[in-house]
Request: fold
Amino acid sequence: MTTRPNLDTLTPELIERGLRALQQAQTPPPQLLELALAGGSASAAEKSLILQNWFDEMTIHALNYQRRAEGLEQPDAPPPTRAAALTALAADFCSGNPDLEGWSALYHRYLAPLSFEAGDLALAAHVVPQQFRRRLKRGLSHLAHALREAEMDARRQACSPPGSHIPAPDYAHLFGVQEHTQRLARQLTDPNGPRFISLEGLGGIGKTALARAVAQRQIEQDGLTDVLWVSARQEWFSDRGEIIPLNDPARSLEDVAARMAAQLGLQKLTGLPASDKLARIQPILSATPYLAVIDNLETLRDTESLLPALHPLAGDTRFLLTSRYTLSGFPYVHIFPVPQLSASAARALLESEMARRGFRSAIPPPAIERLYALIGGLPLALKLVAAQVRCFALADIIADLQRAQRRTQDALYTFIYRRTWSALTDSARHLLLALLPLDPDGEDRAFIQTMSGLTEADFAPALAQLLDYSLLEAVDPLGAPRYNLHRLTATFLQTDVLHQWTA
Reply:
């Protein structure tokens, strides 16, 4: 077992020895290689690379932070010439900011791509070598302090077992998802696979359960460092048919950055802007592979700015998102439509839930078929039915699904559809209602446009919105696409719920 060095030994002098070794492509001192921050089971070469990346990221972030405070330019890339690098150093030393001078001296002496002797840097900074050395020591002291804090965070994080941030399952068994789990696991472990995957589909179709199953598999089988899990879910639908508000969901980029930082053990970043938190998180996620799950992404306020802000964090670390609304507008996001359960998987789920509740009688196949025709393979609706079977006759439950006269059925439709219905344009609402008589096998585009009576100018964006919001399914989209409604959506449209919402 590796013995971690005492934090008091992480002195500026040790840091400087490590930086000199890395600059000369040599192995850093053992005290640095034994840090939790450097990776527990990595080789010496891998640990050296992790340390190099951390020193680079930390110093550049601090240097640019100080430059920003002084109104100086913060280049996106290192200066391309020696003259340009020395000019940037001179500007830093003209600011009168001792912290900026310290970080700049440190960066240009040990971390800049172009190497310089200390005397040349002192000359460019218009100070004598002894003064430059004092600035360099100040920078090394700052870096040593930052390293001690980062090492404390890494040790604290190491005490939590991998996967501890994955939420407890809200299911007893999963049915019909093994193939999806395996496919997603292959994509997430493929070096050339997508960095962002979005699980998309109707509310209640099992996106969160699938994400959880994938995350657990990644921890147990694929050697992942850990899973970060940020939930933006604002409410929960219980199997008693109640919509229960959840406490403190993530609502913004600020919340997402704060929760990722906290799960990485970076509590000291509290109070910093989201951009600074993400900048400090990036070297950790670059050094070791994580899976970051953001659940119920569609409820966040600023999705349009969130994903571009998270994009630089992806690499060996992958992002798994769940959303009722499509993220296909982001070219780096791979879309994974979550299908409903097959009839056999739906039956297995229903019978499993009933058995869990102590109900041993089997539902006759004709009743199963009728139920599936009404609600399809939507796990949330199936679990609600299983919860009610002990109290109500199945025929009454089916009738209530069609009429939504009982509170639980009304709540189910509200949970799944109300927010989406409110977001639809008038043309999209008109088209959705016009699709009610659709053949279960679907119809082609020309037919449903004729059925809707909409002009092409209104029809095209309405169709796109229904697809984006998972209210309409496209079969064979690359061939001759046919469009159909999810069975539960068709059932919902025949109830009086919409009249209540628009009254």
In short: Residues 422 and 501 are 9 Å apart (CA to CA).
